[in-house]
Design a protein that fits this description.
single chain, ABC transporter permease, alpha+beta, 10-stranded mixed β-sheet, transmembrane, 27 helices, 4 domains, 7-stranded mixed β-sheet
């Protein structure tokens, strides 16, 4: 019976219900889209990283450059090893006839040799050709750019000698064979192709050597096999060490901030939907006070009335949630594709609902119902005597005495720079909105005294000030969020050149296949345009945070080189003169420090190539290396404390005015047969900048959805307001008011709400930008994106005008005779 009553009431006021349903559906669609995109993107990156390692359980790395193939043969004999594959790289140059204008850098190819290709440790999915055939294994994207297929011949130049090699097979793109997507991109990224070690040794000077071994454990635990290997390595005195396979995508992708911003936008849209539902039910309860009073007089209990209204909220939120899931799936597909394209990465994927669906369903139903609890409680507390005797009590709307002081206190508390400061600032602004709305209304009334319509509009806004402030809050939040994120993007675009240049350690980063000797450094120093060169050791280490195991790199830096060509700047602890040579100490990148969760001065336990070691964290640094997911020590300590004997990286500083690209070409010409990567500062800046156009467009689209939700809320509010005053408008028309004057009253009411939202939203956005400057977690300057701010304000104004126009037409079409008769 009670469900029938709730369903009957649910069908009343169809336009109002439709707008509320639409608001909930848009909010749920936005939340589902961002949650699904975040979950699926993170999952895909992890899957691709895992896929590149195949079924490997253990990896064997050298501590001294390359190691002999005999190590692989001995490892295969150890009981418990199911499969083992050796890996070696060899730089080469691709030679195409008719491609004489291609730079030497764009011709660079990394030949990746495997001891055998028919293994689950090398997950190659063949599209064309056969793996067993002698020749090159080329990824799909590379084959399209090169315009080759199985059977075609390619000419490779290795150590100055040309070799003609056939294409054996074309395989699906995989991470360890990921190459450029075009010839233009190839100038800063090397092509990567696979082949067998036996064939690679036919034209390489590194015969009988390996760079890595991948192992698959049979039945015993990985830890047991690792101990067996370590014991064997010590007995044979091999310059290698073993470590379990650990997939940590954060080493190459720092996307936590992106995920947080996406979820914030989706959550904002759902929050706006909750405000819309709250306003709908609050008004509905007010209109039905007589109905509830009559029900009470006939014996209905407060719990029954509460149940009727609560069931209406469940029906409304449930139906809106179900409607929102379907467009949410479509939005998720577009958003996910846009994220990958922003990073210039094409990944084949299938949409999976995952945990995003149940979370969106639960929050889509639960949060609107929670928002309706206050109107539900008010419905159950209706006084029979007050309503039936006095028919309807006119209430004087006042702002609570505690609201403004608490709002100012929260704004002041937000200046602490804590992560919760943003929430405190938004909550404080929300509490102060009635005060600001009253002030702006009075200002408009004073400026437009000659326009009676404006006076009526401002009076109507103040008569229902809490309802109006709720809708102004919707627009405020959208404008503030847009301004803050635009500032963050503009800051990144403006200062990314400076941030990268001040922590790149020079102008070129060089990585070599073989250990870099002093004679190699001397050769580089003698090149035209080179000012100085420094070697840099690196080691992969593992560490455990409170919840999981992580893997990052530790880089060894020459303290003198750091002073003249810094690889990092100090954020916390120490100073720029901090002693890198201090024993058992380390500087952590800001992202690694954040994931670690400790404090400066505490110790972090690292699993290094030479075993488990304790290091004291003496500072936090900002660096472009690995997105801050890195540690720094003095280079000389890498050998004794981390077990890294050789150097395969070097940093190159150029003379003023020297061309980075010309020096890169010279390095490839002189040492191209051993260099696996040469990356210039200019290329790194271009690579980091590639994401901004796509991400800016994505966030603009999401913010447009948020503003659309705000527009739906304004339409709903004004439709309620117009419906309540139809008799009033009819009386005005009967007394001589024109249709244009009625239009002006309703438009003016929407304009006051819209102006308040834009003005206070802009002020809140500036406040949030200021919090970014004060925050220890975010390193930003106070930058106002004037063009983006103007576009946001104009868009918000257009949304307000469009949202106001529908109620305006409804008010202008009032029937004079019907309104007078009623």
């Amino acid at each position: 019976m009670l469900w029938k009553i709730s369903w009957r009431n649910f069908r009343r006021k169809p336009l109002r219900r439709f707008l509320t349903l639409l608001g909930i559906a848009v909010g749920v669609a936005s939340l589902f889209a961002v949650l699904n995109s975040v979950e699926r993107t993170d999952q895909l990156i992890r899957e691709k990283t895992e896929e590149s390692l195949g079924d490997s359980d253990l990896l064997v790395h050298p501590t001294d450059g390359l190691f002999p193939e005999e190590v692989l043969s001995e490892i295969k004999e150890i009981s418990g090893i199911h499969d083992a594959v050796g890996v070696i790289q060899q730089p080469a140059q691709l030679q195409f006839s008719g491609q004489e204008e291609i730079s030497l850098a764009a011709q660079s190819v990394q030949l990746i040799g495997f001891s055998h290709l028919d293994s689950s440790l090398i997950p190659l999915e063949v599209i064309q050709g056969q793996l067993g055939t002698s020749g090159l294994i080329i990824p799909e994207t590379t084959a399209k750019v090169w315009n080759v297929s199985p059977g075609d011949q390619l000419t490779l130049k290795v150590s100055g000698q040309p070799y003609t090699v056939p294409v054996a097979a074309v395989v699906r793109d995989i991470l360890f064979l990921k190459g450029p997507g075009s010839w233009e991109e190839a100038s800063s990224r090397s092509w990567r192709v696979a082949l067998s070690v036996n064939q690679l040794e036919q034209f390489t000077p590194n015969q009988g050597s390996l760079q890595e071994i991948r192992l698959k454990v049979a039945s015993e635990k990985t830890e047991v096999i690792q101990k067996k290997l370590e014991e064997q390595f010590r007995q044979e005195n091999w310059p290698v060490y073993a470590e379990p396979v650990l997939v940590d995508p954060r080493q190459s992708n720092r996307l936590d901030e992106l995920y947080l911003l996406l979820v914030a936008i989706g959550g904002t849209a759902l929050f706006i939907s909750c405000l819309i539902l709250f306003q709908t039910f609050y008004t509905s309860v007010t209109e039905r006070e007589r109905e509830f009073a009559v029900m009470k007089s006939l014996g209905a209990t407060p719990d029954q009335i509460r149940g009727i209204v609560l069931r209406e909220a469940v029906l409304l939120s449930g139906l809106g949630t179900l409607i929102g899931i379907f467009p949410g799936i479509w939005m998720a597909t577009i958003l996910q594709r846009g994220i990958f394209r922003s990073f210039q990465t094409e990944i084949d994927y299938e949409l999976q609902l995952g945990m995003a669906l149940p979370i969106a369903l639960i929050l889509g139903v639960l949060l609107p119902v929670i928002a309706a609890l206050l109107p539900v409680q008010r419905a159950s507390g209706v006084s029979v005597t007050a309503v039936l005797v006095q028919r309807r009590m006119e209430r004087t709307v006042r702002i609570s005495k505690w609201r403004s002081p608490v709002g100012f206190v929260l704004l002041g508390a937000s200046l602490t720079g804590h992560l919760w400061s943003y929430f405190l600032a938004i909550l404080g602004a929300f509490l102060l909105l009635p005060l600001f709305l009253r002030g702006i209304s009075r200002l408009i009334r004073g400026l437009l005294r000659q326009w009676p319509e404006s006076q009526v509009a401002c009076r109507n806004v103040l008569h229902r000030i809490h309802r109006s402030s709720n809708m102004a809050a919707v627009l405020t939040l959208g404008v503030a969020l847009s301004l803050m994120m635009s500032s963050a993007f503009e800051h990144q675009k403006t200062f990314i050149d400076q941030d990268i240049a001040t922590t790149f350690g020079g102008e070129l980063l060089v990585e070599s296949l073989k250990p870099i000797q002093e004679k190699d450094l001397k050769t580089m120093r003698q090149m035209d345009g080179v000012q100085d060169v420094s070697s840099m050791r690196g080691a992969s280490v593992r560490w455990r945070s409170a919840d999981r195991l992580h893997q990052m790199k530790v880089l060894g830096v020459d303290p003198e080189w750091q002073r003249s060509h810094p690889l990092f700047t100090i954020e916390k602890g120490g100073s720029q003169e901090w002693d890198l040579n201090s024993s058992r100490s380390i500087l952590l990148g800001d992202y690694a420090f954040q994931k670690w969760g400790g404090n400066v001065g505490e110790s972090i336990i690292l699993e290094t190539p030479s075993g488990r070691k304790n290091f004291r964290v003496d500072g936090v640094v900002k660096t472009q290396f690995d997105g801050g997911y890195v540690g720094f020590v003095a280079e000389e300590r890498m050998k004794n404390e981390l077990g890294v004997q050789t150097t395969v990286r070097s940093l190159v500083a150029l003379e003023e005015g020297s061309s980075q690209q010309k020096v890169k070409e010279s390095l490839l010409h002189e040492m191209g047969d051993r260099l696996t990567q040469v990356r210039t500062l200019e290329e790194e800046i271009r690579w980091q900048r590639r994401i901004f156009p796509g991400l800016s467009l994505l966030f603009a689209g999401l913010l447009a959805v948020t503003l659309t939700t705000a527009g739906i809320g304004i339409v709903n509010l004004l439709m309620i307001s117009v419906t309540e005053r139809l008799q009033e408008y009819g009386t005005m028309r009967a007394l001589g008011a024109s249709r244009a004057q009625v239009y002006g009253m309703v438009l003016g009411e929407g304009a006051v709400i819209g102006m308040t939202g834009i003005v206070i939203g802009s002020a809140l956005g500036l406040w949030l930008i200021g919090l970014n400057v004060l925050s220890d977690e975010v390193n930003m300057s106070f930058l106002i994106p004037w063009p983006e701010w103007l576009i946001t304000c104009l868009t918000s104004g257009l949304v307000t005008i469009f949202a106001t126009w529908i109620p305006t037409l409804h008010a202008g079409r009032v029937d004079l005779q019907e309104s007078i008769h009623s």
